[in-house]
Amino acid sequence: AARIIQNMDPTADPCQDFYQYACGGWLNRHVIPETSSRYSIFDILRDELEIILKGVLETSDQGDREAFQKAKILYKSCMNESLIEERGSLPLLEALRMVGDWPVASADWSKTKEPSWSMEETLSIMNSRFNKRVLIDMFVWNDDRDSSRHIIYIDQPSLGMPSRDYYFNGGNYQRVREAYLQFMITIAKMIREDKNVSRDDSFVQEEMAKVMELETEIAN
Questions:
Q1: Domain map of the chain by residue range?
Q2: 71 and 78 in contact (C-beta within 8 Å)?
Q3: Among 49, 125, 135, 145, which is most exposed with the fewest C-beta within 10 angstroms?
């Protein structure tokens, strides 16, 4: 209640400017950070929670239950920047190997990988090992008809960009779309270089344009 009162401006006449009356205190005490597009009480609570979690994750793990130990191990692995730099692209290359490699980052994928490649198997690995849903989203959740049991749901997954607007609209959406395509091209070139595959910029651009075309069709 005190926080709500702080965020109000009781000096304003609600009949003249209800927004100032209800939110004037908040506007006077908060500025949207340059790194954010919005700033609300939920953003403040999230920031406060992250500080608390950081303190918890940095405490010693003696006597912790297994779930807490795993969380602390994950946190330490993310903070070990020297090891991350030392490993470079090796974790990414290993992940690609697990899903049958990436045609655009391979010199002869159609000959060496495609004959034994299975889309069904690849989708299941992406889901089970990397929690990444592609083409099909499948998950277990409460049954809408009977909340006492769980069932398997099949749905459409999220797109590569935040929404379908990014694939069709102009203005800022188009600039994001162009940057998204360029990002894919850059990553493909980097991986080809790390795998000592010959440079072929035109091939990479053509293949990534096909990927963008496929994503656009899915968004449509």
A1: 1-79, 86-112+160-219, 118-158
A2: no
A3: 145
Residues ≥6 apart with Cβ < 8 Å to 134: 123, 126, 157
Distance of CA 23 to the CA centre of its chain: 32
Question: Smallest Cα–Cα separation from 218: which of 125, 137, 108?
Answer: 137
Residues 25 and 9: beta-carbon distance below 8 Å: yes
H/E segment holding residue 142: strand 137-143
pTM of the model: 0.69
Q: Which residues contact 156 (CB under 8 A, 6 or more apart)?
A: 136, 137
DSSP secondary structure, 144-194, as one string: TTEEEEEEEEEE----SSSSTHHHH--THHHHHHHHHHHHHHHHHHHHHHH
Q: Which residue has tokens 């990414």?
A: 92
Each of the 220 residues of the chain gets a pLDDT tens digit; together they read 998 899 999 999 999 999 999 999 999 999 888 888 888 889 989 999 999 999 999 998 778 899 999 999 999 999 999 999 999 889 999 999 999 999 999 888 989 999 999 999 999 999 889 988 888 898 899 999 999 999 999 999 999 999 999 999 999 999 999 999 999 999 999 999 999 998 889 999 999 999 999 999 999 9
Q: Do 160 and 183 meet the contact criterion of CB atoms below 8 Å apart?
A: no
Locate all alpha helices (DSSP H) within the chain, ordered by sequence. Answer: 2-6, 18-29, 41-57, 66-79, 81-87, 90-98, 109-112, 119-130, 165-168, 172-194, 201-219
